[in-house]
Design a protein that fits this description.
59% of the residues lie in helices and 0% in strands. It has 120 residues and is mainly alpha-helical. It folds into 2 domains: 31 residues, no CATH class; 74 residues, no CATH class. Helix 3 crosses helix 7 and helix 5 packs antiparallel against helix 7. The longest helix has 20 residues. 21% of the residues are buried.
């Protein structure tokens, strides 16, 4: 599939671009495919739709339980999920692995020292 795409690309581009396309990747694999802002929006929606009722807190109350640095330290130490369970014990039965990163970005974006306020 990659060769077919590259062949089509080579047929439709100028000679200068052909050399560049052979040596560089079209997608930088080191960059995340979803931005932090998008992840925070997804995290806000996950909290609003899946966790808010079980937690008993609004998204603002949840995110503002810690500062930005505190959220970052929890994530680096591998304790972010545990902290979610401490703040919202009833979410243990519904929390999915796929939600951890978006919830982390949401928590960072609306931490108590950011001045941001979510709409959930």
């Amino acid at each position: 599939m990659k060769r077919i795409f590259l062949s089509l690309l080579l047929l439709t581009t100028s000679p200068a671009l052909i050399v560049a396309s052979e040596t560089t990747s079209l997608i930088d694999t080191n960059e995340p495919l979803v931005s932090d802002t998008t992840q925070a929006t997804i995290g806000r929606n996950v909290f609003r739709q899946k966790l808010r009722r079980k937690c008993g807190l609004t998204g603002a109350r949840f995110a503002q339980t810690h500062t930005l640095n505190e959220w970052q330290e929890l994530k680096e130490e591998g304790n972010f999920r545990i902290e979610i369970y401490k703040i919202c014990p009833k979410t243990a039965t519904v929390l999915k692995d796929d939600w951890i990163e978006p919830l982390y970005e949401f928590s960072k974006a609306y931490a108590s020292d950011t001045g941001n306020f979510p709409s959930c």
